[in-house]
Amino acid sequence: MSQLCTWCGSEFEPQVTGRSVKRFCSKSCRQSFHAACRIWGEEAFGAGEVSIFQLQKCIARRARRTQRDPATEQGKPTGVHAGGVVEPMADAR
User: Fold this and answer.
1) Per residue of the chain (93 residues), what is the pLDDT tens digit?
2) Residue 38 to residues 6, 14, 44, 50, 87: CA-CA distances in angstroms?
3) Number of domains observed in the structure of the chain
4) What stretch of H or E contains 91?
5) Does 87 map to a domain?
6) Using an 8 Å Cβ cutoff, are 24 and 30 in contact?
7) 8, part of any domain
8) Does a structural domain hold residue 91?
9) What 3-state class would DSSP assign to 11?
């Protein structure tokens, strides 16, 4: 069953690998989506719409989801220790 790419809206046949269903038709669309999210986040932080604490909570939530499966433990986001404890990131400007 085909679906629409989250980024460009093109129709594609999703492949299920691991536990996730693919949302993008290509690597380029996935990278564009992530680049746009990063830019949006940096602009929101710069405008005072998002705090460092809120951003760190996002990382901690991701770590908890990642740690549910020991096989993906190496995929833990940077700045998060086991148990989802966030450490201050030195150069996160």
Assistant:
1) 889 999 999 999 988 777 778 899 999 999 999 999 999 999 999 999 999 999 999 888 888 876 655 554 454 444 444 444 444 444 444
2) 16, 25, 10, 13, 20
3) 1
4) none
5) no
6) yes
7) yes
8) no
9) strand
Render the burial of 41-80: b for 16+ CB within 10 Å, e for the rest.
eeeebeeeebeeeebbeebbeebeebbeeeeeeeebeebb
Structure tokens at 18: 């691991």
Rounded Cα distance, 18 and 39, in Å:
29
The verdict on residue 90 lying in a domain is no
pLDDT at 62: 80
With a CB cutoff of 8 Å and minimum separation 6, the contacts of 41 are 50, 55
Q: What helix, strand, coil percent values describe the chain, rounded to 5?
A: 45, 10, 45
**Residue indicated by tokens 């450490």:** 87
Report how far residue 69's alpha carbon sits from residue 46's, in angstroms, rounded to the nearest whole number: 35
